[in-house]
Write a structure and sequence with these properties.
Elements lengths: L13 H15 L3 H12 L4 E3 L8 E2 L2 E4 L8 H8 L1
Parallel strand pairs: 1-3
Antiparallel strand pairs: 2-3
Helix pairs in contact: 1-2
Length: about 80
Amino acid sequence: MDNIIPPSSTYLSLGKVVLEAVRGARLYQLHFGDAQIWAIARLHNLPLILSEDFNAGAQIEDVRFINPFASDFEPATWKNMLE
């Protein structure tokens, strides 16, 4: 893979993501697919995941889960976190 996509600050190797996902699945009882989403967000320092599939309002380490379809969702509240 490194021969196809050159390493950079915006690219994480699949191995790092998988290892972090395994850690998330083990420590936080996430399903592995959900743990992969969490791992990518965490490794890229993304503070927020917008998804209806996670426990809305929960936070695991430095990543928070928000349901954008919830009736109380206000985009302006989260806009500053994403800039």
